[in-house]
Structure formats: structure tokens, C-alpha cells
Design goal:
The complex is a heterotrimer of chains A (about 425), B (about 300) and C (about 375). By secondary structure, chain A is mainly alpha-helical. Helix content of chain A is about 65%, strand content about 0%. A two-stranded antiparallel ribbon of chain A has the order 1-2. In chain A, helix 3 packs parallel to helix 15, helix 4 packs across helix 9 and helix 11 packs antiparallel against helix 12. The radius of gyration of chain A is 22 Å and the shape is globular. The chains are: A mainly alpha (about 425), B alpha+beta (about 300), C alpha+beta (about 375).
Chain lengths: ~425, ~300, ~375
């Protein structure tokens, strides 16, 4: 196999650096406030009230988390469903990001809901009319699918290397056997999960947009539109690759690796059309509903909308059209970061800024505790990512030699 | 090897498809919206209400909330600030200036409107909310997971949440005294109201009565029954002497609040056809691209 | 007195019980549109399709306040609280200026006074909820006014908790109200209204002049007065300069005045930058009223028709019976001396106009009036 130049291996790099220590401090700070939430109630830590039931945790942890984890399903569709093997190098990092991202979403939901011990209720108590039910169920299943998709990485890491502590050493062989059986079974059925992952993602990415449709006039008309689900899906699809580029470039810099520029450039060239479609729908919706009149009044909503559209969509769209940007790591990173920022801001805008309930005496701004928890979660996410890529074969290193094991590429061959 | 895996692929796809269709047939439908012809309602005549706040006391008393002495509700200073129904009071009275006569303020009782097409019933992730045949919208705390989507969805911003409780925080709102009306009693607020500003009766009768009052006193009332058509109609309806916007009622259209989101939701999940089609489509693409690649390799 | 009171109470009670809702056979002859009471075109006995109250237009029985019960005990619904005693007569005495009996007895037929519960059901849970139940009706009657001036809605402002009730027969209250009338209303003499008119901010109204001089009844202006006018607890301190702000239409503001004062009169007649003097016959007409005229009502000379006719200043226009024989000159304040009393009237009042004081130079060269007088001044 001539194209097997990418070869996922555990990266050899030390775990602790000054940056990592900083992240740990941020994570601990978040965990302290998290304890406050569980011991004294949501009101003790957040600025939420009866007028603003949803805030930063839903807007960022859940909505933005889901959107930014879209890299998982977009690269899976590209790499596995379209069988574009040249992108296999980035499928695993994207999968890992998605898996951790969705774990972070699940944690966000767990923290935000008042009766967290009943988080399993939607599994048995169904309400087909509820967009949130659909999101909840899809996210639960998709999270499971993501873990299953990631299993081959685990089996690959341990097959032939099972080395349990001494008193369990006798189980080394059976465990190895089990892993091999699991691996073989997975490699035959993986395509089911991959397709399911893409379907589930499309469903809940759009349903996340349906969530706020029911808020109706409580939402600022710049964002409130019946095509919100479509806009959410389109923005999720267009943020998938930028997120992969963003995260790949950060990882290679942090781990002192050579950026996978050929793959990333090719990936980057696909972003402009996707962003273009998103922008077309966004502008078209604005024109049809004549909401551009609201842009004239100078207030938080209009400013945030302009920033979101200008810096999050239009500028990166122009950048991705330039071949120079696609070839220069720093510019590619900037453009991708702008798209990521744009979608993050879009989700915050939709769930927090646009939400303007009647009877609110003062507008909502997240408390220090809320921000701490969210930032803490992100820190934990990064720490987990670093731990996994250092210990599991996720990131591909260019290699001239043939793969050492036959388990290099998981999923559908 | 490749032939075998293709057969596996087809078999598994069929299996998954069958599984999902099986799921749809067993899937429990969302809560039904029963709109009985005889459903009850309350007509709140704000021109009659004197703002005595007895209803606030009666409501707390009927719902086992700390109510205090009825006599303590005589203090009218409370009315200087605008309040909202919360976890400690499921209904509150707010006072607004009359405009023409400063000694006759307008008092407005606020509580859950008990919509005919409730957004909360549609939104609740676990279907804990129920619209009953008599018009009441109740919820089951034991099912609630505390996601507060009902609060985000409610067009009248009514449900409240116990933010201060770490364990077992509850969503709270007016339950139209469902337990009392089941026994044939009146809602507590209706029963205590000294001036019968709250008229409890069949919703259809109340609309007739309200129309009649407006017709006979066109100078006294604005020609608008709030709740007759708002968000598809509500069980609680209001009459007033001035524009409802000045009494801080949200301006709402005639379409039921959950209308758009439900049609989107049902469109995406119409008998699971769209998801299954998408699944089949993706499966097809996957199969074709895979086959093309295999052919390419055979050629080589 | 007590017996009399009991008699009235019994009477009212029996009348109440026997009250029929039917306005009687002749009611179709009343000067009323059928639609006042019936909603359909052809009302029948079985389906009279009556519209709900108020039907005050067909009330025909009026009683003087003094003929009505002094005290009414309201105790049909008492549960938590003891009975409420309503001083009917005192309220009735004031009702004349605030809408009359119909204000409370809003749903009456041409027959005798109906009891409230003949229409208002005692149970709140009922089939027909188009009119308020008895509890609601009672409270609306009282609170609609009382809250307006007391700014209170607490139950205790009228009710006494049963457990706090000592005087069960309530003799003290009976004593409080028996034989009592509503205190006489002290009329203001002068009222100055501050208006927004650009024709002159201040309008001065001499209440005195209107009631005493012009002889207007209270009800000719005060028809739909609110009790608040006098009873507002926020305005009890009479020494302070009260300022009541009203928001009325132009028509409402002027309706009371223009029922007498012509609409076409120019604004400055009432509106000015300074407060106006009270009406002064001398200044306004050039004919000052002497002590004989000053106490007369305007109508005595001007007739009752408004606006008043302008009269000439000839005495004989009014005093038609006066002649040289029966006229006593001393009435003018000058008792003629013997010399002059012999003269005929026209000798001095040469042009026959008695309104102008004569001069002496018609007869005397060196005399002048009023320096020298043809007689003695009397009071």
C-alpha cells in the first residue's frame, strides 16, 4: 500500500510543561466552583434566574460544544463515507476531539440541569414533540457511537502489549484474546457506527437550532427564524474542518511536530464553499424576513450580530479563498480560528444575547463561577487530549516504513 | 474478503433499518393535547380587582407554601415594586397607574395562563407537563430533570425554578388548583376573591361574558380579551381599561407557541423516514465509493 | 325610635321577599326602548331574554333618604368575620350628589326595591357566572368607593374577626348611627382653578354667589360626584392648600359652567391672570345695589330665565305701584324736609328718571346737591 505514509503512534513528549501547570490551575479553580454548584445549588454559583433560565453553560458548554465537535462527523464523512483516504491522518485526531467534546457537552448538561440524578429520565420518558428530547437522545447515542468508534485505538494500543499488574498477570492472555475478538468484530461493523454517527450528528446539530425556535418573540428577530435548524446544521458543517485545522495546528506546535500542511491545505480548500452556503442562507434569511432593519439600531444585539457575521464568516471566507492562506500555517490558523470564534459566538448569541425575556430587570451576564466552570472544563478537555495523544496512537507521524502492525488503520478499509 | 464484507454490510444495514422502524412503532407519542369543549377558565377583570392580594394568600395556603397571616397582606407598599410569580408565590398582584384617576390604580393578578397549546408541554424533555381536559396545565415533579427548557419556552415567562436548592430543586407554577377542582372545589384564588374579579367558568361562557361586558361598557374597557386568541388561546383571560402592553403583558401573536418547532420536529422525524433515508443514502455513497476504489485497485 | 327602626327594617325585609322581578303589566307604556331590558325582538313570558343589569332607567320608586333604613346588617355570608353594619341613611343622604339610589340599586324594576340576593347568588360555584355572586356584589358596592378614598383594601377596614367580636348585638354601632345624619357640608366661598388655558390661567369661582345669590341647588352641578371629593384620607388636612389634579376633556371641564354661562362668551370673562373679584352689580352693570336690593335674589328682578335680561335703571320699571302718594322718600336715605316734601316729584327729578340724583340749580342759584341737601339723612 503505497499511500500509507501516515502512521498513528503515541507521541513521545513530556506531559508537564508550564502551560500544562497553568491549565491544571484553571481546571482546579473550575472544580471548586463546580463543588459549590453541587453543594449549594445552581443559584449559588450562577447568575441565572427565573427570567434567564439558560446561560453560559447551555450556550457554550452544550450548544457551542456540540458545534465545535462537528469535526468528528465531517471528517468521518469525508474520510470513510467518501473514501478519501488521503484524509485518514486527521480522522483520528478529529474523532478524539469529537469524543472529548461530546463528553464535555454531557458534563455541561449534567452540571446545568437542576436534578442531575435524573439525567437518565429521557431514556425512558419520551416526548417526541420536544427538540430538547431529540437533542438529548441523539447526543447520548452519538456519544456512545463516538466511544465505539474510538475503541479500535484502544485495542490497537494494547493488543500484544497487555501487561496487567503482577497479581492479575494471569489474565494477560485472556484480555489480549478478548481485545483481538473485539477488534475483529469492530472492524467488520464499524461502518454501521460511522454512518450512524453522521446521521445522528446531522439530526441533533439541526435540532439544537430548533431548541430556541419555541422561545418565539423572546428571541431577537436577527436570530429568531424558522430556518434556525438549517443554519445550525450548515454552521456546524462549516466549522468542522476549521476546528480540525485549528486543533491540529495547536497540537503540532505544542508537541513540536511538523504541521500536516498538505492535508490541512486540502481540507482548508473545502471550507470556503461550505462557509459560502452558510453565509448565503444567513443573508437570504435576513433579506426575506427584512430583519436587516435591526442592524441600524446600535445595540448589543446588532453589534454582536455584525461581529459574528463579519469576523466569523465573511473575513475567513475571503481568507480561505486565497491560496496563500491555505499554504501558510499562521494564516490558515487565523482563518480557522476566526470560523471557530464565529460559530462559538453564534451559539452564545443564539442562546444568551438574543434571548431577551419579558420582565427581566437586568440583562444576564455570566458570573465568575459560571465562567470558571466552563473554562475549567475546557482546561480538563485539553489536558485529557494531551494525555491521550501521548499514550494512544492518535496523531500520525510521517513514516517511510511500512506499518508495523496490521491494525494501523481502523474502521472501514 | 471484500465480497464477504459487502454482504455483511448489506445485511447489517437491513438489520439496522428494521430495528429503527421497530422503534418507531413502539415509540410513545408525545403528550396529547386534549382540548375539551367544556374546558374551564378564569376571566380576570382588572377593572374590578382592588389589589387586596387575598388571592396571593389563598394560593400559598392551598399549596402549602409559607403564607403568613391574611392580615399582613393589607400592606400596600408591596405593590410599589413589580413582582413576578416565583417559587415562593405562584401568583402575584402588580399595580399600575390608572392614568385618569390616581386614586383608582389598576391591579393585575399574574399567574400561569394555562395555554390551550402550551409551549411547556411541547418543550419538556421528559414530557412531565400535561394539559388536562379541564384546561389545567400541570407537571410531574418526579419526572422533571430540572433542565428549565419550559422556562425558556414559556411565552408568558411563568415557570420558576428553585435555584437555591442543591437537592431536589423543583419547577413551580400555578397548577390551577388541579387537586381542588378535581374535588369540585373552586381554585383557591377564585374562592377568596372578595370582588369576584376572577370569574371561574367554562371558557366558552367566559368569552361571551367578556364580550358582553365590553359591549355594554365600551368606555370602560379596551376592546380586547387578552388570552382569547393569544398563542392559540389561554384558559386565563383578561379584561382591562387600558392597553395590555401598558400592563406589561407580552405582545403575542395568534399562533400557538410550539407550532413552528413542532412542525419542524415532526418534519425531521416524520415516521423516521428522513433519518432512515439519510442513513440509506450515506450507506449507498459509502458502498459506491468503496467499490470504485476496489475497482481502481484491481485495475492496478 | 327603636321601634320605628324595627318597623322599617321589617317592612323592607317583607317587601324584599315579595319583590317580583316583573315590572308589571303597564311597563310597556314606560317611555323606554324595549331593548333597554330585552335582548331579543319578541320577548315572551317563558323566554323574556332579559339583559343583565343595570336597568336603572326603569326605576320608578324613589324614597327620601329619611324614609330609608338607618342601619342595615349584612350577615348572609359571614364566616370568618362578623356581620358588617352599613349606615344606609347617611349614605343615602349623600347619594343625591353621586348618582342617586340607582348607584347601588342598579337593577331595579318599576316595582319596589329588590334585595341584592334576588339576582346575586350566594354560591360562587354556580352555573350562570355572568353577574357576580353576592359576596362579589357586596364588596364591589362598598370597595369601589371606599378604596378610592381610604386607599385601603384590607378586610379589617370593614370587617371584624369573629373572635374579636365582643359586642354581638352591636348596640354601640346602632347608637352610633341612630338618628344621625350626614354632617352638613361646609360650602366653600371661593375656589380658584389653575388651568392650562393660554387665555388666562386662573378661573375664579365664587361658590357662595352661585348657591346663595343665584340660588342653584347642589344637584344642578354635583351630579356624579365621588365621595373622594371630601373623604380622601390623603386630603383631610384642610389647612393645607389642596391641589387636586384632574384630567378631563375640554367639554367635561366646561360643561358645568356653560349650562348657565353662554358658550359664546369670550374666555377672558372667566379666565384671567389674576383671581377675579366676586360679582359686583355696580361694577358690572354700573348700577350699584343699595341696601334694599343687595339681598334680593337675582330672579326677583331679572326673572328666572337665563341668561338674565338687562333691566333699565328706572325705579318704576320694577316698582310699578309707586306714586307720589305712597312713596316714602326716606327709603332712599334722605328724609325730605317740610319744604320739599310738599313739592311734586318732577319738580326736582326733572327728566322723570329717578335713577339719577337731581341737582338743586333748577330752583336755587346758590345751592348745589349733594353739598346741600333738601332734608335730613337717615339710615
Amino acid at each position: 500500500m503505497s499511500h500509507e505514509v501516515h502512521n498513528p503512534v503515541p507521541i513521545k513528549h513530556k506531559y508537564f510543561t508550564p502551560g500544562v501547570i497553568g491549565l491544571i490551575i484553571i481546571a482546579v479553580n473550575g472544580l471548586v466552583f463546580l463543588m459549590g454548584r453541587f453543594f449549594f445549588g445552581i443559584g449559588a454559583v450562577t447568575n441565572l434566574n427565573n427570567q434567564y433560565p439558560w446561560g453560559l453553560w447551555i450556550g457554550v458548554d452544550v450548544a457551542a460544544g456540540v458545534a465545535l465537535a462537528a469535526g468528528g462527523f465531517t471528517t468521518a464523512a469525508l474520510g470513510h463515507i467518501m473514501h478519501r483516504d488521503e484524509y485518514h491522518a486527521i480522522v483520528r485526531p478529529a474523532l478524539l476531539t469529537a469524543m472529548l467534546g461530546y463528553t464535555f457537552v454531557a458534563m455541561g448538561v449534567f452540571v446545568d440541569i437542576g436534578r442531575w440524578y435524573f439525567i437518565w429520565h429521557p431514556l425512558v420518558m419520551w416526548n417526541g414533540n420536544s427538540a430538547l428530547f431529540e437533542v438529548g437522545i441523539c447526543v447520548m447515542i452519538y456519544l456512545t457511537v463516538l466511544y465505539i468508534e474510538f475503541l479500535p485505538v484502544v485495542t490497537e494500543r494494547f493488543i500484544g502489549k497487555v501487561n496487567l499488574p503482577k497479581f492479575l498477570a494471569g489474565f494477560n492472555k485472556p484480555v489480549d484474546k478478548f481485545l483481538r475478538v473485539l477488534d475483529r468484530g469492530l472492524s467488520k461493523t464499524m461502518f454501521i457506527f460511522i454512518i450512524a454517527g453522521v446521521v445522528l450528528s446531522s439530526l441533533h446539530q439541526s435540532s439544537l437550532g430548533t431548541l430556541m425556535v419555541i422561545a418565539g418573540p423572546k428571541m431577537h428577530p436577527l436570530w429568531q427564524t424558522p430556518i434556525l435548524p438549517l443554519l445550525f446544521l450548515l454552521s456546524a458543517v462549516s466549522v468542522g474542518f476549521p476546528m480540525v485545522i485549528f486543533e491540529s495546528l495547536i497540537a503540532s506546535r505544542s508537541l513540536k511536530l511538523k504541521p500536516e500542511m498538505p492535508v490541512l491545505s486540502r481540507l482548508g480548500s473545502m471550507i470556503a464553499p461550505l462557509l459560502g452556503i452558510y453565509l448565503a442562507f444567513k443573508i437570504g434569511d435576513m433579506v426575506i424576513r427584512k430583519t436587516f432593519v435591526y442592524l441600524v439600531d446600535f445595540n448589543t444585539a446588532s453589534v454582536m450580530f455584525t461581529i459574528e457575521l463579519l469576523f466569523g464568516v465573511i473575513i475567513p471566507l475571503r481568507m480561505f479563498l486565497s491560496p496563500k492562506v491555505l499554504k501558510t500555517p499562521s494564516l490558515l490558523f487565523t482563518a480557522s480560528a476566526l470560523v471557530v470564534f464565529g460559530v462559538l459566538l453564534n451559539r452564545i448569541n443564539n442562546f444568551v444575547v438574543a434571548y431577551n425575556p419579558p420582565y427581566s430587570t437586568e440583562s444576564y451576564f455570566p458570573s465568575f463561577g459560571e465562567i470558571s466552570v466552563t473554562v475549567g472544563f475546557v482546561a480538563i478537555l485539553v489536558l485529557a487530549y494531551r494525555f491521550i495523544v501521548l499514550n494512544f496512537p492518535v496523531i500520525s507521524l510521517p513514516s517511510k516504513t511500512a506499518p508495523q502492525t496490521k491494525y494501523t488503520i481502523r474502521g472501514v478499509k | 474478503m471484500s465480497g464477504k464484507s459487502r454482504r455483511d454490510f448489506l445485511k447489517s444495514t437491513a438489520l439496522i433499518g428494521a430495528g429503527v422502524t421497530g422503534l418507531t412503532t413502539t415509540a410513545k407519542a408525545g403528550p396529547q393535547n386534549i382540548l375539551s369543549e367544556d374546558r374551564m377558565g378564569v376571566l380576570v377583570d382588572t377593572t374590578v380587582c382592588v389589589g387586596c392580594r387575598n388571592c396571593e394568600w389563598a394560593c400559598k395556603d392551598a399549596h402549602n407554601l409559607p403564607a403568613g397571616n391574611l392580615e399582613d397582606y393589607e400592606d400596600r407598599k408591596v405593590l410599589d415594586t413589580k413582582r413576578r410569580p416565583g417559587t415562593d408565590a405562584l401568583t402575584v398582584v402588580n399595580e399600575y397607574s390608572h392614568g385618569k384617576n390616581s386614586s383608582l390604580p389598576i391591579d393585575v393578578k399574574v399567574q400561569c395562563m394555562h395555554c390551550d397549546h402550551p409551549a411547556c408541554v411541547s418543550a419538556c424533555i421528559v414530557g412531565a407537563f400535561t394539559k388536562h381536559e379541564n384546561g389545567t396545565v400541570t407537571w410531574d415533579t418526579d419526572m422533571c430533570i430540572g433542565c428549565r427548557y419550559c422556562m425558556a419556552a414559556c411565552p408568558f415567562q411563568v415557570p420558576a425554578f428553585e435555584y437555591d436548592k442543591a437537592l431536589n430543586p423543583m419547577i413551580m407554577k400555578c397548577d390551577f388548583c388541579f387537586d381542588r377542582t378535581k374535588e369540585g372545589k373552586l381554585p383557591a384564588c377564585v374562592e377568596i376573591c372578595p370582588v369576584e374579579a376572577l370569574t371561574y367558568g367554562k371558557r366558552s361562557d367566559l368569552i361571551k361574558i367578556a364580550r358582553d361586558r365590553i359591549k355594554r361598557n365600551p368606555d370602560k374597557y379596551v376592546d380586547h380579551i387578552l388570552g382569547e386568541t393569544e398563542v392559540g388561546g389561554t384558559s386565563w383571560m383578561y379584561l382591562a381599561s387600558k392597553d395590555f402592553a401598558e400592563l406589561e403583558f407580552p405582545k403575542l401573536g395568534k399562533n400557538p407557541a410550539p407550532g413552528v418547532s413542532e412542525s419542524i420536529q415532526h418534519g425531521i422525524f416524520a415516521y423516521f423516514v428522513p433519518p432512515i433515508s439519510l442513513y440509506a443514502l450515506l450507506g449507498g455513497i459509502m458502498w459506491i465509493t468503496k467499490r470504485r476504489k476496489e475497482l481502481d485497485e484491481e485495475v492496478k | 325610635m327603636k321601634k320605628f327602626l324595627a318597623l322599617i327594617l321589617v317592612l323592607v325585609f317583607t317587601i324584599g321577599i315579595n319583590a317580583q322581578q316583573s315590572p308589571g303589566k303597564d311597563h310597556s307604556k314606560l317611555n323606554l326602548s324595549c331593548k333597554t331590558c330585552h335582548s331579543c325582538d319578541v320577548p315572551t313570558k317563558s323566554d323574556p331574554c332579559l339583559v343583565i343589569c343595570p336597568r336603572e332607567k326603569i326605576t320608578t320608586v324613589y324614597q327620601k333618604p329619611e324614609q330609608t333604613p338607618e342601619l342595615i346588617t349584612i350577615n348572609q355570608l359571614s364566616d370568618r368575620y362578623g356581620p358588617v353594619y352599613f349606615s344606609h341613611k347617611i349614605h343615602a343622604q349623600m347619594s343625591i350628589m353621586s348618582g342617586g339610589c340607582e348607584n347601588c340599586h342598579h337593577h331595579n324594576t318599576s316595582g319596589p326595591i329588590l334585595k341584592c340576593n334576588s339576582c346575586h347568588e350566594t354560591s360562587r360555584k354556580r352555573e350562570d357566572v355572568s353577574i357576580p355572586d353576592l359576596k362579589g356584589a357586596y364588596h364591589r358596592q362598598c370597595m369601589d368607593c371606599h378604596r378610592e378614598w381610604s386607599h385601603e383594601t384590607g378586610c379589617n377596614s370593614c370587617h371584624t374577626l369573629k373572635k374579636d367580636l365582643k359586642d354581638t348585638k352591636n348596640e354601640s354601632l346602632q347608637k352610633k348611627y341612630s338618628g344621625k345624619d350626614h354632617p352638613v357640608i361646609i360650602e366653600p366661598t371661593k375656589l380658584v382653578y389653575e388651568t392650562k388655558s393660554d387665555k388666562g390661567k386662573l378661573v375664579t369661582f365664587y361658590h357662595d354667589d352661585h348657591t346663595k345669590k343665584f340660588g342653584l341647588n347642589c344637584t344642578s352641578c354635583h351630579k356624579q360626584e365621588s365621595c373622594t371629593k371630601c373623604h380622601d384620607v390623603n386630603n383631610t388636612d384642610k389647612s393645607k392648600n389642596q391641589k387636586v389634579v384632574t384630567k378631563k376633556t375640554f367639554e367635561d371641564q366646561h360643561s358645568n359652567c356653560i349650562s348657565c354661562h353662554s358658550k359664546t362668551e369670550n374666555c377672558s370673562k372667566c379666565h384671567g391672570e389674576k383671581t377675579l373679584e366676586p360679582f359686583d352689580h355696580g361694577k358690572k352693570t354700573g348700577w350699584a345695589l343699595n341696601k334694599h336690593h343687595i339681598n334680593l335674589s337675582c330672579a326677583k328682578c331679572h326673572g328666572s330665565k337665563l341668561p338674565y335680561n338687562k333691566l333699565d335703571n328706572k325705579c318704576l320699571s320694577c316698582h310699578k305701584g309707586w306714586n307720589a302718594e305712597n312713596f316714602k322718600h326716606s327709603i332712599t336715605g334722605l328724609q325730605l324736609d317740610e319744604m320739599h316734601s310738599e313739592l311734586s316729584c318732577e319738580d326736582c327729578h326733572t327728566d322723570g328718571n329717578f335713577g339719577i340724583k337731581p341737582s338743586c340749580d333748577g330752583c336755587h342759584d346758590d345751592y348745589s346737591f349733594p353739598k346741600q341737601k333738601p332734608g335730613k339723612l337717615v339710615k
